[in-house]
Specification:
- This protein is 3% helix and 40% strand.
- With 413 residues, it is mainly β.
- Strands 2, 4, 6, 7, 9, 10 and 12 form a 7-stranded mixed β-sheet that branches.
- A hairpin with an 8-residue loop joins strand 6 and strand 7.
- The radius of gyration is 40 Å and the shape is elongated.
Length: 413
Amino acid sequence: MRKSRLIPLVLAIAMIITCTIMPANTAKAAGTPTITVETVDVETGSSDTVDVNVSIANNPGICTLWLAINYDSALELVDVVDKGSLIGSDFETGGDIKANPFIVSWDDSANKNGDSSFNGTFMTLKFKVKSGASLGKHKVWLTFPYPGNSAYNTEDTVSDSSFSLKEGGIDLYVPVITGQPQNTTVNTGEIASFSVKTSGSGLTYMWQYKEKGKDTWVDWTNKKTADITVAYADYRNGMSFRCVVTDSTGRKHISDAAVLTYTSAPSIKITQQPQDATVAPDTLASFSVNATGSGLTYLWQYKNKGESTWTDWTSKKTADITVAYSASRNGMSLRCKITDKSGNTVTSSAAVLTYSSASSITITAQPQNATVAPNTLASFSVKATGSGLTYLWQYKNKGESSWTDWTSKKTAD
């Protein structure tokens, strides 16, 4: 290493001789030599070690390089990995790994390998993010520990003053994707559904697709909601889908990819779908599905109003079911999964259960006029439909205008 150019003449002559025995092993690069620390996005709360790569571009050819690794206090440097590509294997570290800055060097001033003009990633810094670290970017940057003597080549025509150093770091963010899209298999000709679950406000969505066998993701500009449907098209078999969720700060969160697969239609045919049902409170509701196939079994599912997830109703395993009254079930959706003996499954369309705001009462038979002999009982009756009906007869004497409750007459007959 050279910390100063004021070295004994003999040593200087020896260094010049040894550094010029071999020519540079590659041509010098044009442009400003640049060493860049990458920026890595990391979800807050992650306990994994974070790899931050360091790369060089426009390398003019060097045989010695000294760098000081500096980083914010929210980070902890745990290791430095040399890629073995910059200046052979002449890599050294010194001191405590927890020192900040931490100095590393590549020194081939003895010219075992000649100048190196390698461009690309030459070092990986491994960090831990400390507990309680704030959101946002935590910087990692490089400096030259011995200005003017931290980088040079065999001909001594390059110095660190010609290099540009670009900082990077670790950018902590809050994840907004809480549920990933799932692979989906549907029958040929059927509509497929995909969804992504998120948390947070001010989110926007953009789904992307990638055709089978291709590498490029394409924005699907008319799919901009968390839940989407995909119409059948033969070329979509094997197509992948993912969602890019943009938060209120402009950060883009990319979901996992989900694959769409079409399969031959199973030997189950639904001949009658469940129908919406509106009933009065405290009244049983009925739902049914009709299907043809071999060895069919049934499993109804429900989804409460406002929810997106279907739940198996394990006690409902027949084609026809009744649903007991519960105020929480108003607006509930129900559907039936039908499976044949070969394991093929189809799912019915959904039907909605609605409770009317008040019980509907319909009088189906009105009281009739009655003529009887004196001292004979007269009979009157009324027929009505509804839930939880009660009765109270009233009377009005001839010539009177007011009706009076007959409190002892409280039956339909």
